[in-house]
Amino acid sequence: MKCYICRREEAVVRIEGKNYCKDCFLKLYEKRVEKVIKKWKLIENGDRVMVALSGGKDSASMLYFLNKYKKAVDFELEAMFIHLWIPEYSDLALEKSKELTKMLGIKLHIVDIKKGTGKTLIEIARSNRRRAICSICGIVKRYYMNKHPRERGFNKIATGHNMDDILEFFIKNFIDRNFEWNDKLKPIVPSTHPKLLTKIRPLYECSNVENYYYAKFNLLPFIESKCPFSKISKWKNIVECFDTNIPGSKRQFTRTIEELNFSVKEPEYKQCKICGELTTSKNGICSFCKLIHEN
Fold first, then answer.
1. pTM greater than the 0.85 cutoff
2. E strand map for the chain
3. pLDDT value of residue 236
4. For an engineered disulfide with 78, which of 107, 114, 155, 192 has Cβ 3.0 to 4.6 Å away?
5. pLDDT score for 61
């Protein structure tokens, strides 16, 4: 197969109906991520950015690229890993995160929920059987991804959400009429309160497959197995139909989402009665504290 860009017969990756050699793919990938960062001003001089590592390919690729990007922009970069104590998964994911940060010379913060709450994720889930464990996991991670970096003086949290994630979330939310959630599915969600960090998604226009090859070609350590509690999204097949029928349509759809504005009113925040973090609940207790303290 000839590379679509350099025309040499060394293509090793096929993306959106086009074949690429390793070197051209890596350059194209990095150019795409850099374009999103610059267009949306995700990272600027003087920023303090913390990357949320999961141990997987997406966050590994993001951290690797951002570490290279420091040559062009003067910003501080560190990483965090939330240890959920999922058997036969969390320890391996932490090991890969340690390997990656050591390889790149980046400080890793380990947030242990067992030390913070006295419970593992599974123990929290057992006390909250009305909620799916993935929903509980999301509440716990969002809580610490905002609280931990902010308390250490960071002004931005970077997550590895990719193009496929964004499209699945958008379609599901749109059908369910959750427009306020879709309004936040952007490359950047600016802070609207001193206790809210700005959230950035540098891999917004990169797919699952692209992140996998970027991590593989750069020999990055990452866990390839999935969380034992993860389920195949029923929206995944719908998203994959786009590029199967019209190559490149997933990326175009994602770029359209970037520009949408649902004009959703910002919620009224108050401080949680228990932990002091922000909440919009009527009883003044945040979702995290409800999980930990009300059962």
1. yes
2. 13-15, 18-20, 48-53, 76-83, 108-112, 156-158, 188-189, 198-200, 270-271, 278-279
3. 83
4. 107
5. 98
Q: Are 51 and 246 within 8 A, CB to CB?
A: no
∠ CA 38-203-48, nearest 5°, is: 60
Which amino acid, 287? Answer: S
Q: Tokens 């380990």, residue?
A: 110
Q: Closest Cα to residue 80, out of 121, 108, 61, 45?
A: 108
Contacts of 188 (CB under 8 A, 6+ apart): 40, 41, 42, 198, 199, 200, 201
Residues in Cβ contact with 276 at an 8 Å cutoff, skipping those fewer than 6 apart: none
In this structure, the number of other CB atoms found within 10 A of the CB of residue 43 comes to 23
> What per-residue confidence (pLDDT) applies to 295?
56
CB 101 within 8 Å of CB 52: no
Q: Residues in the chain with pLDDT < 50?
A: none
